[in-house]
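Assemble and predict.
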Amino acid sequence: DTEVTQTPKHLVMGMTNKKSLKCEQHMGHRAMYWYKQKAKKPPELMFVYSYEKLSINESVPSRFSPECPNSSLLNLHLHALQPEDSALYLCASSQDRTVTGADGEQFFGPGTRLTVL
Amino acid sequence: AQRVTQPEKLLSVFKGAPVELKCNYSYSGSPELFWYVQYSRQRLQLLLRHISRESIKGFTADLNKGETSFHLKKPFAQEEDSAMYYCALDLSGGYNKLIFGAGTRLAVHP
């Protein structure tokens, strides 16, 4: 299996809701990422997990809470979001760069399109 | 500061014409650069990485450290090349941090 899968494809939530985005890969990658992509803009890195530990948090508001329960799964828990958080949320995975021979390619999922009302 | 600049939002050419998508970077370390492509209704995917010096779908890109550039070129554009192209800088030194340029939309007309 050489794909990153994300669920759900679409999500509409109110500002008081709690929801979660899920991401899964079975390529044996030990680095996983969350990106946010607004319309007509490039992906912006939010979080990086390396060997199931959070290694980079790009000053993301605490209403976004990542979780990496095992090496294949990555969640993004959402709570008290704002309308400006509406965007496409992309998950990606790669070999960890500390691994000899890792070439840095990131494999992206199709994204979850989030709308906050 | 690390930065990737793609000066053109849109590049419009006719089929068979040469294409050059510009990318310049700013980084004090040893850069690792990539071109990612997003075709309509498809996921973002890797097109080229500078370390492999390969040609994919007729595209090539050469890292020019003197000019801090990594321009993407193809001698004869095809309609199926129409897509969004992102230049990306991977910070070296054990990081897994990818910084994207703003992207260039390539439109190839028949």
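Chain A has a mean pLDDT of 92.
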